[in-house]
């Protein structure tokens, strides 16, 4: 095996998220953890994190590759060796979702697990082997994963310690924003913005707000699915009780203008009518994917969102602005506070 590859461990995780703590304790890799977390958000199955070692491979077989856009790996290769990897280098340089840049005699390659996986046909075996040190996604493609090789340290792996983010931001309407991962390659150098990725967990926003989010196509999303996650509030829910109204109230976002106009009860009652019919149809045997057509835009949802600094700066320029809709503006403001604090060297649009 040629000794021209050098690995970079660059993910910083927010260990306030309990599932991330447990994953690291179990020996899971940051890129794998955040990818599985995105998938579990979709299915509302966070409690099943790490329970199925083959979960990632099932997602690949099902074509559910979008969740692997949340996990990133940066590799650095000696510049002299890059010339011997022309097909790989050419593919990488022409992929808008990957970043390649040089510094001090080495070339850095940053991409999501989805991009790395899409390149398996052009990756040199040494690169595949190196990737097996940082993610289990490539285990089946190498004879022995690099992390299991006794002399693996001979390849030199500079490891930068995790930085733990202590902050969580709650909006005025009860949604929360957490920075759960920052992929910052080679901290002693300022990398290109396209190589730095931030992942946020956004909980409790409305579907109306999430529709605005997903218009930003350079970001990657994993959203709680209404096709797979039931909105019945439990099998024994009684739709003709005050408790049902309270449950609906807690599961929707109510605009401040509705409250200011004294129409909150009317707003909740209208949403409750939709939920009431949803529950009745589900109990009658209608599938979730069809009953969900009734659910209002006010329904709360959770997202895992990932983007590089360029994408986030564009998002903030539009959404953390005076003319932005109030809900997404509050979320964008929280995201902007995290980014300007932890990536202070970048020139943000409103810094």
Could you explain how this protein is built, in words?
- With 351 residues, this protein is α+β, with helices and mostly antiparallel strands.
- Among the domains are: 151 residues; 53 residues, no CATH class.
- It contains 14 helices and ten strands.
- The longest helix is centred in the C-terminal third of the chain and has 20 residues.
- About 5% of the residues have low confidence.
Question: Any descriptors?
Answer:
single chain; alpha+beta; 4-stranded antiparallel β-sheet; 351 residues; 6-stranded antiparallel β-sheet
- What is the molecular shape? globular
- Give the termini distance in whole angstroms: 47 Å
The total beta strand count reads: 10
In quaternary terms, these chains amount to: single chain
Q: What is the string of SSEs from the N terminus onward?
A: EEHHHEHHEEHHEEEHEHHHHEHH
Low-confidence stretches: 150-165
Q: What is the structural class?
A: alpha+beta
Largest sheet: 6 strands, antiparallel
Mean pLDDT, nearest integer? Answer: 84
Please report which band the strand proportion falls in: under 5%, 5-15%, 15-25%, 25-35%, 35-45% or over 45%: 15-25%
Approximate helicity band: 25-40%
Number of helices: 14
State Rg.
Answer: 22 Å
Question: What's the SSE blueprint?
Answer:
Blueprint: E1 5-8, E2 11-13, H1 18-25, H2 30-43, H3 55-61, E3 72-78, H4 79-82, H5 86-93, E4 98-103, E5 106-112, H6 113-118, H7 125-131, E6 169-170, E7 176-183, E8 197-206, H8 207-213, E9 220-223, H9 242-250, H10 256-260, H11 264-283, H12 288-291, E10 300-308, H13 309-319, H14 326-342
Antiparallel strand pairs: 1-3, 2-7, 3-5, 4-5, 6-7, 7-8, 8-10, 9-10
Helix pairs in contact: 1-2, 9-11, 13-14
